[in-house]
Specification:
This protein is α/β, with parallel strands linked by helices. The protein folds into 3 domains: 2-162, Jelly Rolls (Sandwich), CATH 2.60.120.260; 165-253, Immunoglobulins (Immunoglobulin-like, Sandwich); 258-556, TIM Barrel (Alpha-Beta Barrel). It has 6 helices and 31 strands. It has helices at 291-304, 318-327, 346-363, 382-398, 483-498, 542-552; strands at 2-3, 64-71, 79-85, 91-96, 99-105, 111-114, 124-131, 156-162, 165-173, 180-188, 195-200, 205-210, 216-222, 236-241, 246-251, 256-259, 262-265, 268-270, 272-277, 308-311, 330-334, 369-376, 403-408, 411-414, 417-420, 431-434, 451-454, 460-464, 503-506, 514-515, 528-529. The strands form 8 sheets. An 8-stranded parallel barrel has the order 19-20-21-22-23-26-28-29, surrounded by 4 helices. Strands 1-2-7-4-5 form a 5-stranded antiparallel β-sheet, with no helix packed on it. The protein has a 4-stranded antiparallel β-sheet with strand order 12-11-14-15, with no helix packed on it. α3 (346-363) runs parallel beside α4 and α5 packs parallel to α6. The protein is globular and about 75 Å long. The termini are far apart. The relative contact order is 0.10. It binds alpha-D-glucopyranuronic acid (GCU). Alpha-D-glucopyranuronic acid binds next to loops.
Length: 560
């Protein structure tokens, strides 16, 4: 790796893109040759992993780092080869053997490039320039309350496929149905017209379809399936067999809808007993990326009594979504349209829409994912409204089976009345609302006096509430930063929440403490947001047990 704060491996001294940048991975050919970089004699970084927690020098670093991976690869005949990235924060330029193969913007969704024609049997040089510099027109924009962990934060893989392969598929229950499976399969390659068969052996399903001239086939059949839910973790082995390729997946089938102010899972009303999670690695800090990280975080959520997690504020790694499928935990997944982005900027919109497309593409077959969220705490305004409306209709065009939401803000109509009437609510299925009564807004007991109203006959998920406490810091219930203050705040919060007639879910902020550059208070925060119910060392705070007790009051169906 090469740390390149001035991007001198990309631009020349006139700040023009250089034809001879570090992507050439050049070596001096003679003693007089002038080459001013050398990957072989530069440091290394682990992939997957953010760079900030791998070296003290890089802790605050925001800029460009070049990664280089040398590899040999003997490709089998009639196959194709792709390089796949789980994510790269934030902007990635990718080169193979000195050739640019592509670029990607957005730090939390997967992307891949075909390298069939460029790969050699030996001595390949894969180079990735990763730049996590924040930009005003980016998504997210300049200000966030999480650490801007940079780098190749998720797995990088080589993927070999047949010449014509199963590129993508969407197999879920049709909206509102509990026995009609519908979706599609898409082939990529020359052999477009093929017979494909969808098999679900355990359900005695074997249905054949034919792909059209573009390699696509619509899937539609009825089946008697056991439905996935937190109480019934049913995942089926599903095989998609084409003449030239076959893929297997584990898919759960469930329906998710709203009716008035109710959320219905498989036709029955549920309460989303949730908690918010940032993709902060448990116990060690840094960007989480592994299956073990996911199991630890979801394990703590289960211990809390949760059947739902809000993955904030960006798509998390695939492990956590797949483990949620296996553990029966419903998921809210969100793109980082966070606070005040450039609503009128076309490129910003395209970027947000692309991240939404990629989020849905990766997780559309996960039964656990029940809600797509397009935004968090965004300010009212016409440009913002049309931006988000367009994102919502785009998401619905890609996936009509799930619920749309966003974390909105509320306002007082008088001293004691909270109103949810953000015009965005009109376009959502589930209202999300963040409130910090007792932390940013008054003291904990203020919650006792508040009544909640909504302009919409729709279910509400309180998508954030809570306050900071440093684990082991004790005092009286009105002393900030103590466990007793946080405990007190939660007790008053839950009394208030229980009185909201259209409340159908809660997701306190947040499961564990997480790093934020906006939290410098020495001896208390030290660049950690301390609103976790669990500390960054895995220690449960008093408020954890208040929330756990509240969730214990719910019966199996998740209804109190
Ligand atoms: C906000 C925001 C979070 C933030 C939290 C806090 O509501 O959505 O990203 O971390 O409040 O202030 O702790």
């Amino acid at each position: 790796m090469l740390v390149d704060p001035y991007e001198s491996g990309f631009y020349d001294y006139r700040y023009k893109p250089s034809a001879n940048g570090y992507f050439k991975d050049a070596k001096p050919k003679s003693k007089s040759d002038l080459i001013e970089y050398d990957f072989d004699r530069s440091g290394t970084l682990k992939v997957p992993g953010d760079w900030n927690t791998q070296s003290d020098q890089l802790f605050f670093y925001e800029g460009t780092i070049w990664y280089r991976k040398s590899f040999d690869y003997e490709r089998r005949p009639n196959t194709r080869l792709f390089v796949y990235f789980g994510a790269a924060n934030y902007f990635a330029d990718v080169y193979l053997n000195g050739e640019k193969i592509g670029q990607h913007e957005g730090g939390f969704t997967p992307f891949n490039f075909e390298i069939t024609k460029l790969v050699r049997d030996t001595g390949n040089s894969l180079i990735v320039k990763v730049d996590n510099k924040r930009r005003r027109d980016a998504v997210p924009t300049l200000m966030t309350d999480w650490w801007n962990y940079g780098g190749l934060t998720r797995h990088v893989k080589l993927v070999e496929t047949p010449a014509t392969f199963v590129h993508d598929y969407f197999i879920q229950l049709q909206k509102g149905s509990r026995n009609r499976v519908s979706g599609w399969v898409k082939l990529d390659g020359d052999k477009h017209n093929q017979k494909i068969t969808v098999r679900i052996p355990e359900a005695g399903i074997s249905k054949s379809f034919t792909t059209d001239a573009s390699g696509s086939a619509a899937i539609d059949f009825t089946a008697d399936l056991k439905l996935w839910s937190p109480e019934n973790l049913k995942l089926y082995d599903v095989a998609i067999e084409a003449e030239t390729d076959q893929v297997r997946d584990q898919i759960g089938f469930r329906s998710i809808e709203t009716k008035g102010t109710d959320i219905l899972l498989n036709g029955r009303p549920i309460f989303l007993r949730g908690v918010c999670i940032h993709e902060e690695a448990p116990l060690r800090g840094g960007r989480a990326y592994s299956r073990e990280d996911a199991l630890t975080l979801l394990g703590w959520a289960k211990e809390l009594g949760a059947n739902f997690v809000r993955l904030a504020h960006y798509p998390h790694n695939e492990f956590i979504v797949r483990e949620a499928d296996r553990m029966g935990i419903m998921v809210w997944s969100e793109i980082p349209v966070y606070w005040t982005i450039l609503w009128e900027n076309r490129a910003t919109f395209e970027n947000a829409r692309n991240q939404l497309t990629e989020m849905i593409a990766r997780d559309k077959n996960r039964a656990a994912v029940v809600i797509w969220s397009v935004a968090n705490e965004t300010p009212l305004g016409d440009a913002r409204l049309s931006f988000l409306k367009n994102l919502i209709s785009h998401a619905r065009s890609l996936d009509s089976t799930r619920l749309m939401s966003a974390a909105m803000e509320r306002h007082y109509t008088d001293q004691t009345t909270q109103m949810i009437d953000d015009p965005l609510g009109e376009y959502l299925d589930v209202l999300g609302c963040n409130e910090y009564v007792g932390w940013y807004d008054g003291l904990p007991e203020k919650a006792d006096r508040l009544e909640w109203k909504s302009k919409y006959e729709k279910p509400l998920v309180m998508s954030e509430f809570g306050g900071d406490a440093l684990y082991g810091h004790h005092g009286d219930p009105l002393t900030r930063w103590t466990e007793e203050y946080q405990e007190n705040l939660y007790q008053h919060q839950l009394n208030m929440l229980k009185k909201i007639p259209f409340l159908r879910g809660t997701a306190p902020w947040i499961l564990t403490d997480f790093r934020s550059p906006r939290r410098p208070l020495p001896g208390i925060q030290d660049y950690w947001n301390r609103k976790g119910l669990i500390s960054n060392r895995g220690e449960k705070k008093k408020a954890f047990y208040v929330m756990q007790q509240y969730y214990r009051e719910f019966n199996a169906e998740g209804v109190r």
